[in-house]
Amino acid sequence: MHFIGAGPGAADLITVRGRDLLGRCETCLYPGSMTPTALLAYCPDDATLIDTANLDLPAIVARMVEAHEKGHEIARLCSGDPSIYSAVAEQMRRLDAAGVPYDVTPGVPAFAAAAALLNRELTVPEVGQSLVITRAQARSTAMPPGETLANFARTGTTLALHLAINRIEQVVDELLPFYTKDSPAAVVALASQPGERVLRGTLGTIAAQSREAGISRAAMIFVGEVLAAEGFPDSFLYSATRDRANQPESL
């Protein structure tokens, strides 16, 4: 049983390992609403393909266990990277109880694909060296106590928000006490997929820009000075003053 990060959308952004595992799977479970058809083309012609978009958790796990009992090699595609907002933890818990072994192959996460589209590094020397990846609370699993936008914003670090585009006005309102209306912001929708969009603005303008553009799904919101950083010092990584003979490579 292989949990495989499918990447942000483009079929050629799956890892070589993930592609090779798909190529030998006998059963593949995939989220139909988020998996491009081209990605499934890597599966063998006779593989059993199961769209999990309309299945609940017990039904998904039942199909996995059934395939395992048949002796099948199983691929479970997850959008982006399995370590972030993939719901694999509860699947693993049930597979452990059922005695089904599994492994995990990472994938390109949505925030990384979005940053690539922005042509921006999210950790810039002396501007921002941390990244908070979070989401907004809506009709979904409750956020743990303390994991609020206000608490994250107090650090002033770069924020990358999943699942928040339809509440972008509320996001802005919660962030403004800690950033300013001129703080750089961006929205990236459908990164690496057909129809991808990039909006660059400020915390004061980005909500209106998003509404005007009609962006309502599959979008990342970024806030932070790294989005417009200029004149920052070079990293110590490649500094001429660094003793490369006696130091490990680090920033």
TrEMBL record:
Pathway: Cofactor biosynthesis; adenosylcobalamin biosynthesis. Gene3D superfamilies: Cobalt-precorrin-4 Transmethylase, Domain 1, Methyltransferase, Cobalt-precorrin-4 Transmethylase, Domain 2. One of its GO terms (molecular function) is precorrin-4 C11-methyltransferase activity. CDD domains: Precorrin-4_C11-MT. Keywords: Cobalamin biosynthesis, Methyltransferase, S-adenosyl-L-methionine, Transferase. GO terms for biological process: cobalamin biosynthetic process; methylation. Residues 2-206 form the Tetrapyrrole methylase domain. Belongs to the precorrin methyltransferase family. This is Precorrin-4 C11-methyltransferase. It comes from Amycolatopsis decaplanina DSM 44594.
